[in-house]
């Protein structure tokens, strides 16, 4: 009995201490308060049109908790607010379940569908069903070559091969001789296209390195050991923003002189570009992909407008260097770049 | 619902007082129901169904229910043999990637040999069964826990899927075989759908029902069924009374392989090209379906019908969240909570059943 009471007192003391520290130790920079102030300054969030409240659904091949798709969603949501749209979102990295999700939105009779075609053959039938049900479809991000054949209105995204070629040219411009392309997801077609595109235009020698993207320490140690084993590597290209800072760490550990460059963008990459630890980034503007998809569906429903003339609408590649970084830092923090 | 008692070891209680035939009969029926492994999951399924009927307006439409049934069947086909395996006291963590392996073998063999797609389908069946037999043989020979053995197979298959696909096709997904001979007839068998009015009934639902019926018959009406319960309950005791433990376990793993082949061919003939990286993580969905359906983790208790109900709960929950237009970020949380609740319910129902017996 006495022991129980003593334990209660200890717990109480610990709780009080934690509370006290958290109240006394306020930060005058960053944190939630700064974020809320920024959000307050952002758009007021009222619809700018008086069209009926349509429902648009987006179904992507994203895994759980993916930063890239989060930005796509932000773009889509902001366009939805502006266009008086109810926006719903579903995702599954497994092709079969992604097509089931599309089917369940067709069952719900949504007014428009936005689908990413990472696995085109798996989505073919279900997109045909959407057309049969009279639901307009716009494809985003991946599947440019299949989009038109499936009967989608337009495709919005980046051609991965073109983006890779841009990286190869940029590396030439910077006088690099030996580059490493870090693929963080084995079996991803888009990733292969990026590295192959870079290889096509890069005049030097480009090697591929496969790492386990879901395991950051493994990514770091793999890049590290590669840089240690070959000191002539003078450029490392990562295929995702979260992997760029990891590559910087690996480079420091290995004592290598390589420049770190990356596909895609996030707050850390913007900071890295600004302080010079990163060379350049190639962005495909995910916000634009989500925003335009919703907006173009709205335009189609409202005015039968179709953009692109049967060709994909490209949102990238946009090469970003030190001089753009300051403005982008602000935008990455609010989750729109 | 079968009218035979699942052969579960029920501790003998004091003999019931004979006070009249009618009451005795009535009580034994109730007890029989209470003793069924799937009772808890049936209650759970009804609860989930009613819940989503209320919160999600499109859930009760015929077209939505067929989508839910299809989603359930893709898990359910695998959950049946996985349930049998769990009753036999073992796990198979390689079941998820084995489905994709089976599809890849079928597709690549047909393409590379320019053979009729049915040849690829046949070769795939043989190879997949061999993988299952390999799991079973390794388990019975080494005496290592099945968790370790099949974890090893899981990693090996994941690597083989990717390695072979890249080696043979040069990319990470297979080439299309839709224009090859036999594709259309194979699609009829593995990936067609019947249209009733405006509703599509996918053929996987039929495969699922057939497999559940077959497994239930094996479990409750055949000698092999008794062997499965016996090796899961106590392998040494079973061996002592002459049950062929090694054969039974290898057979169970080959059963999983057979279902993986069916699921794999469905993937191939409904989507034509196969992504080599898919399938990872699905093995847990099969185990969840079987566990929610009343299969014990320790073996010796469970049913195929329970696993089917478990898969149906999974299908309802995964699609119900979409129909209710909830944020999908919470989906995995619901899945985990549901698993815990269903298993607790099962445990409670069983305890009550044993007290009554």
From TrEMBL, chain B:
Q: Principal localization?
A: membrane
InterPro entries from the entry?
Answer: ABC_transp_permease
Q: Does the keyword Secreted apply?
A: no
Q: Where are the transmembrane segments?
A: 39-56, 68-86, 117-139, 146-164, 201-220, 285-318, 330-349
Keyword terms of this UniProt record: Cell inner membrane, Cell membrane, Membrane, Sugar transport, Transmembrane, Transmembrane helix, Transport
A Pfam short name: BPD_transp_2
| Single GO MF annotation | transmembrane transporter activity
Q: How does it sit in the membrane?
A: Multi-pass membrane protein
Looking at the record's lineage, which domain of life comes first?
Answer: Bacteria
This protein's name: Xylose transport system permease protein XylH
Which species is the source of this protein? Streptomyces angustmyceticus
């Amino acid at each position: 009995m006495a022991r129980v009471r003593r334990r209660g007192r200890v717990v109480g003391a610990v709780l009080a201490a934690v509370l006290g520290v958290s109240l006394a130790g306020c930060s005058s920079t960053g944190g939630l308060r700064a974020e809320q102030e920024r959000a307050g300054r952002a758009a007021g969030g009222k619809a700018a049109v008086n069209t009926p409240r349509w429902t648009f659904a987006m179904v992507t091949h994203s895994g759980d908790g993916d930063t890239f798709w989060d930005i796509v969603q932000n773009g889509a949501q902001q366009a939805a607010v502006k266009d008086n749209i109810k926006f719903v979102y579903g995702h599954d990295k497994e092709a079969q379940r992604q097509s089931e999700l599309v089917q369940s939105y067709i069952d719900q009779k949504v007014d428009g569908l936005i689908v990413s075609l990472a696995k085109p053959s798996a989505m073919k039938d279900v997109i045909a069903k959407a057309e049969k049900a009279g639901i307009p479809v716009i494809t985003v991000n991946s599947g440019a070559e299949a989009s038109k054949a499936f009967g989608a209105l337009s495709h919005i995204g980046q051609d991965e091969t073109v983006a890779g070629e841009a990286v190869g040219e940029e590396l030439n411009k910077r006088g690099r001789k030996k580059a490493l392309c870090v693929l963080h997801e084995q079996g991803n077609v888009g990733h292969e296209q990026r590295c192959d595109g870079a290889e096509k235009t890069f005049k030097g020698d480009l090697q591929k390195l496969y790492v386990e993207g879901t395991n950051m320490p493994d990514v770091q140690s793999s890049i590290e050991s590669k840089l240690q084993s070959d000191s002539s590597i003078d450029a490392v290209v990562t295929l995702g923003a979260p992997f760029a800072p990891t590559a910087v760490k690996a480079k420091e550990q290995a004592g290598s002189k390589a420049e770190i460059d990356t596909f895609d963008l996030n707050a850390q990459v913007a900071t890295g570009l600004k302080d010079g630890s990163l060379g350049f980034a190639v962005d495909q503007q995910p916000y634009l992909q989500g925003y335009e998809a919703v907006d173009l569906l709205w335009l189609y429903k409202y005015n039968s407008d179709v953009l692109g003339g049967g060709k994909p609408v490209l949102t990238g590649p946009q090469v970003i260097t030190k001089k753009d970084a300051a403005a982008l830092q602000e935008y990455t923090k609010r989750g729109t770049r | 619902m079968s009218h035979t008692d699942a052969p579960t070891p029920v501790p003998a209680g004091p003999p019931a007082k004979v006070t009249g035939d009618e009451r005795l009969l009535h009580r034994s029926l109730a007890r029989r129901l209470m003793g069924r492994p799937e009772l808890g999951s049936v209650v759970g399924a009804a609860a989930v169904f009613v819940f989503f009927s209320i919160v999600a307006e499109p859930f009760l439409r015929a077209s939505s229910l067929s989508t839910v049934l299809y989603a359930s069947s893709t898990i359910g086909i695998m959950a049946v043999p996985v349930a049998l395996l769990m009753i036999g006291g073992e796990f198979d963590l390689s079941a998820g990637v084995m489905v994709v392996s089976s599809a890849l073998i079928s597709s690549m063999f047909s393409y590379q040999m320019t053979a009729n797609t049915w040849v690829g389908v046949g070769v795939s069946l043989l190879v997949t069964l061999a993988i299952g037999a390999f799991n079973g043989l390794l388990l019975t020979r080494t005496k290592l826990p099945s968790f370790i053995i099949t974890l090893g197979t899981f990693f090996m298959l994941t690597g083989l899927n990717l390695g072979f696909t890249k080696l043979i096709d040069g990319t990470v997904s297979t080439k299309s075989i839709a224009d090859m001979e036999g594709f259309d007839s194979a699609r009829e068998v593995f990936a067609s759908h019947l249209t009733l009015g405006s509703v599509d009934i996918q053929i996987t639902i039929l495969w699922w029902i057939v497999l559940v019926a077959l497994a239930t018959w094996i479990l409750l009406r055949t000698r092999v069924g008794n062997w499965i319960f016996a090796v899961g309950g106590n392998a040494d005791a079973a061996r002592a009374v002459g049950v062929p433990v090694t054969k039974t376990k290898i057979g169970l793993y080959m059963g999983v392989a057979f279902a993986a082949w069916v699921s794999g061919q469905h993937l191939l003939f409904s989507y034509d090209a196969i992504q080599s990286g898919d399938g990872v993580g699905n093995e847990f969905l099969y185990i969840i379906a079987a566990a929610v359906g009343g299969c014990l983790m320790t073996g010796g208790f469970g049913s195929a019908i329970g696993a089917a109900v478990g898969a149906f709960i999974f299908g309802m929950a995964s699609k119900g969240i979409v129909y209710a237009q909830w944020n999908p970020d919470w989906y995995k949380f619901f899945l985990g909570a549901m698993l815990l609740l269903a298993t607790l319910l099962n445990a409670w129902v069983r305890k009550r059943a044993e007290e009554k017996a």
